[in-house]
Fold this protein.
Amino acid sequence: MKSKSVHNKWSWLLLVLSAVALLAFGSTRDSGPRTQADRIDAITKVLACPTCSGESVYVSRASGAESIRAEVARQIAGGQQSDDEIIAYIEARFGSRVLLVPRSTGLDSLIWVLPVFVLICAVGTLGFAFRRWKVVGSDSISVEDAQLVERALREDR
Amino acid sequence: MSELSTSRKRVAPIIASVVGALLVAFLWVLVTAEPNTADDADSPLLGQPAPSVVTTTLNDEEFVLANRKGSWVVFNFFNSTCVPCVAEHPELIAFNKRESLAANPAETYTVINDDNDESVRAFFAKNGGDWQKIRDSDGSISVAFGVAKVPETWVIDPNGYVRLRIAGMLTQGLLDDQLAQLKAQFGS
């Protein structure tokens, strides 16, 4: 019984590790060299249109968004700036409200950290609660129940 | 069983209080937070050197912002079809008239935003305003200043630093007051 439980634990661990490894590989794998159009699309997808509500520069056809798209294209054509540097240039002009994906530094990092923290706390609390229920269920019985069992055993004898 | 129930009774109110306090704190932050509107006059460029501007005027003359050092420069981002731009125009003319009498008058420039030369010429011929109009055909000046929507008015000091951004329509005397304060603070 015990070896089956250990075997189950290892299977789960293996499954989780495989999932993490596949996700990591899928999200970081190099899909080959990108064209200038790919870079323009990638950058404008993470920039918010300054005059619209909730639209990216990639989607919006507003004048402000068109100007930002043209600027991104110009800087990419210049060949001097990385994607992060171009995004930083736009942010330095319009402020952090132009970023659709919050940065992972400073106060913005709370957006990434808090959900993970809450998830860990929730899973931990659930685990603790399940364990306590199990212990209570297997080890402790009420006095009335104990007397009932004792009486039944006596009568049986 | 009774021990467990007692400990539960003790822990439950504490957990409930902590969760309640967190919710109240969260609501308090939401209620007291300043709204961030598009007309927010704040800008990361304030106090920074002005972006490089090299373009041409409507008269096809070269315009280089760096060459204007020594003068206060007012950039008014404008589009002839924008209603607030049209509405604030008399105030801009009045400001320019008053400023022309000052010891070191600020230079006003209209930055043409997403508009064609003919429409701008026709607008100024009809409504007045004899200052220079500069082209921003590819939108690079608007992006360099982080202009979200017109009208926007920017002030650059004689040393080339951005000192003021007014997002939205100019109200009576607003630009005069702000410029007077800036001249007193940074020297005319």
